[in-house]
Design goal:
The chain has 904 residues and is an alpha+beta fold. The chain is built from 36 helices and 20 strands. The strands form seven sheets. A six-stranded mixed sheet has the order 10-17-18-7-19-20, with helices on both faces. Strands 6-5-8-9 form a four-stranded antiparallel sheet, covered by helices on one side. A two-stranded antiparallel sheet has the order 1-4. The relative contact order is 0.09. It is a multi-pass membrane protein. This is ABC transporter ATP-binding protein.
Length: 904
Amino acid sequence: MEKSLARYIWSNTRLEQIWILTIVAASMIPYFLSFDLPKQIVNGPIQGKGFEHPGQTQTFMHIAFDVPVLGHFEVFQGLQLTRFWMLIALSLVFLALVVLNGLFKFYINTYKGRLGERMLRRIRFELVDRVLRFPPAHFKRVKPAEIATMIKDEVEPMGGFTGDAYVTPALLGGQAITALVFIIMQNFWLGMIAASIVAVQAVVIPRMRKRLLELGRQRQLTARELSGRVGEIVEGIGTIHANDTTNLERADIAARLGLIFSIRYDLYQWKFLVKFINNFLAQVTPFLFYSIGGFFALQGRLDIGQLVAVINAYKDLPGPLKELIDWDQSRQDVQVKYNQVVEQFSVDGLIDSKIQVVSPAPAGRITHALVATNLTVVDDSGARVLDHVSVEIQPGEKVAIVGDSGAGGEYLAEAFGRLVWPDSGRVAIDGRDLLELPESLTGRRIAYASSDTFFFHGTLRSNLLYGLKHAPLKTADYDDAAANEIKWQMVEARRAGNPELDLNSDWVDYAAAGATGPHDIYSVIRPVLDAVAMSQDILDMALRSNVDAATHDDLTSRIVELRHALRLRLQEENLDGLVVPFEFNTYNPQATVGENLLFGTLKRPLMTNRKLAAHPYFQRLFTETGLDTDLYDMGLEIAENAVELFTDLPPDHPFFQQLTFMTAEDIPTYEALLQKLNGKGFDAATPDERVSIIRLSFSYIEPRHRFGLLTQMLMEKIVKARAKFHEHIPADLARVIERYDPERFTASATLMDNVLFGRIAHQQADAPERIHSILYDVFERLGMQDSVLSIGLDFDVGSGGKRLTNVQRQKLSLGRALLKRADYIICNRPLPALDHRVQDQIARAILTGVDNSEYAPAVVWVLSNPSFAELFDRVLVFDRGSLVESGTSTDLLEKNGMFKELLS
């Protein structure tokens, strides 16, 4: 990277800087005239110079030039104005100059801002670009939070300084020199006084600010280290809690904050000391002007107009001068920060940018062997984890790598996947070093999966298809306004040195996955998810999801058909009792009291059980129907039972997961409430206490909780209250309660609830599993499996994929690798979280699938269980970084060597 920030800025903004400097030079003309005009107004119309006689006039705006050789040119003869109109005319000119100077400043500052933001965009992109080109080993030595902080915060001042780098000294220096020259032209000695003070400020203040720069550098480093430490705490929070080291981390953070405090306090002291001295020097000069200038005026050596003009000119001198000194401090400060950025991002072994060039064209197949020759890999401690290994993987070959953990096979797989760089030897394809091949080839034709998974924040779909997003292949459809906006963004991207790539385009390479477009991609995804045993997980996610009717209209429009198909299937298998359907005139014993009362669902978080119980209309309905005392008594019984059963259990006890109406934190609250209300009746409770008690009944289900609180009479009473509730429901409640309708999709309910339109009978053995199995068959029979799969793939995986289980993350990582249909699939112990039986099942499914596919890739699999080696054509046995045995599993067993020891 360029070491000098000034040279970096000039090389990237040369033409823009020349243009704005030209504008700055032009702005000095009206700036100078604005100094001279007050003198003309005071000496002329105000004091009457040139208007000694009544009715005398003077020429205004006479414009003429004497050009050598060509002679005299008169542009405008001017206007003859009296004393009053000359005052008005000069005042209007002064106003025009004020407006003109303001417009110049407006244009210059706006242009500087745009220039600075464009440069900030450029440098941030270049730094991220360098991060993408760091060698893999470098990421073990840096903290992600520190890198992110540098790119986000530490380069921020560089963008603002870009616009000021050349314009500010030219503009402020030009203004200061203009004012100083004008003062000298009015009176030499006053000019020398001003020049002396300026010289002192220009020399003393920057020297004092060197300490500020050093303190600023220390503040920046400590703040960056704090950011990195906080990032480590977030990433290692599980380890912290598991080892009771929260107070150690608090002490560490407190010590770092104390160091930052002392640095910042010292910085404030120096900052305001410098400011005090600077302000003192700025205020000394007006004192000298008033005293010495006034003395000259009394002696007649300086007229009043000149003195006013000098004072007016000096009034504009400290501002530019102070800003110029501030600019110099900013320049040094930003240069220090830039030097630190350069130091952090100047990394040896940076990947050549040509290797990562955008390539929309499909990558050609790799038809040559993957050859490792004399490969040696050394870890960060200096130990050889792979020692002079030579091996050749033929296209279409199935190779198993076995050995103890750390024996060397994992590092060979990482070298094949370009995740580690060899210290000697090389991996080559057709004689070309793997590290010199473009990523548009290796990243598409070599797939890698391991247990060390990472997923970006987004949906399951975006992460599953991530391995197919190499270049924008289809332009997004825009209307005219959006198209113009995109064109403007592309122009700005080019000016800022960013790539002209539209993120909103379709980046998915459907052809590489074996599909023709988004309409048939699920036909490709399904076999992959089946192979890695993840179809069930995603379909379960779909059933538990709320469905966006606008996005998935193909399914929501057929919800009634799905309900009928499910009912028919249950009848065919004599399983009608598995689901108790919703009927408006009947109480559903498998649903909560609240659901039965509402015959609908609440649109959360707009409405909750507590808010509903406190609503005036609801309370009035309770009073009129007598449900207030009934549900209060039920809630009191629920509270008594829950407190009696669960009060002595720890908060993390699994029983609390089954307690839908109360949390572990609620137990002490209700225990105190019961002690207060015990035996006192409904009228003794306050309105808030009644709400707290009644809301417990809303989540009660008799077959599930079995407290014996629901009588037939109470159920009939609730059904009658339901009809009355919906008969006169107010508008505010109608907006937040979605009523069940057998002929309509319920947006606030899950997909499963919509299809069932009822509740699963809890007393039936394995009822949920049996219903799930039947639902899958119904979806497939109606040709809606892709629609359901699409809903499941909408699931948000969270930060780093942490909303998925470890097993699901490993399956998804392997599925993403398979979806690329690469020529070489490298599996580096990809499924250690699964038991061996499931690993065997997945391995067999994958190997069978690739054998039957048209592209028949080579598979290199580092096995966690050596017994799977019989599934492969060849077995490589590693021990202490060396390849000790190679051959078929049958041949190696006959040798009675290390492979047989691993199996025993």
